[in-house]
Amino acid sequence: MDEEITIINEKTRNEKIREFFIQNKKILISGILCLILIVLGFYSFQIYADGQRKIISDKYNGAIIEYEKVKKDKTISSMREIILDKDSTYSPLALYFLIDNDLVENKKEVNELFDVLINKTSLETEIKNLIIYKKALYNADIVDESNLLDILSPIINSNSVWKSHALYLVAEYFYYKNEKTKSKEFFEQIFNIENPNQDILKKSQKRLNRDFSE
């Protein structure tokens, strides 16, 4: 008797499952197709992104070879294009290459390229902060106090690993302008940071002991 009940229950369960699939066949097929399309779309995008990265990588390496062959104009043009491609790896490298080799004399243009990286390129937060810091370094000799602080404000007003570097740059800026009170204020701020850069901390302490001790 128990066996017969078990067989009947099993047949009933199988029939319900069968009816469920028949009644929901269109929904199930649509769901499977959507899942397949999503997977295919994801892998297609990855293939496309990898292909684009390879193109930019080849362009960057080619530009360096052109520079070594003294084709500077072509190198400059290629590096500009790479920066405007807004690639998270090669766009910053391209700008650093232009700056390190003094290939662009127009500072306004260089600052515009910095802004492409800072404002229009998808970068990790600390990579972006490093680029902001490099922009401040690039401009430190030519901008006034207000502009320098404006450039560095995203770092100074954060807990970035580059905060101690930014404060040290501002402190040195005021020191060489002979504004000792402001300079000391920024040097002292470095000691209030959680986990400051140890090398910057030592330099700041040395500067305070040597030039600000009474």
Please report which band the strand proportion falls in: under 5%, 5-15%, 15-25%, 25-35%, 35-45% or over 45%.
under 5%
Task: Output the radius of gyration.
Answer: 30 Å
Give me the strand/helix succession: HHHHHHHHHH
* Tally of strands: 0
Q: Provide the residue-averaged pLDDT.
A: 83
Largest sheet: none
SS-based structural class? mainly alpha
Shape: flat
Topology record:
Blueprint: H1 2-23, H2 25-68, H3 72-84, H4 90-100, H5 107-120, H6 125-139, H7 145-156, H8 163-176, H9 180-190, H10 198-211
Helix pairs in contact: 2-3, 3-4, 4-5, 5-6, 6-7, 7-8, 8-9, 9-10
Structure overview:
Helix 2 (25-68) packs antiparallel against helix 3, helix 4 (90-100) packs antiparallel against helix 5 and helix 9 (180-190) runs antiparallel to helix 10. This protein is 79% helix and 0% strand. The protein is built from ten helices and no strands. The longest helix has 44 residues, at 25-68. With 214 residues, the chain is mainly alpha-helical. Among the domains are: 54-123; 144-214.
Give me some keywords for this one.
about 210 residues, mainly alpha, 10 helices
Give a short synopsis of this structure.
This protein has 214 residues and is mainly α. Among the domains are: 54-123; 144-214.
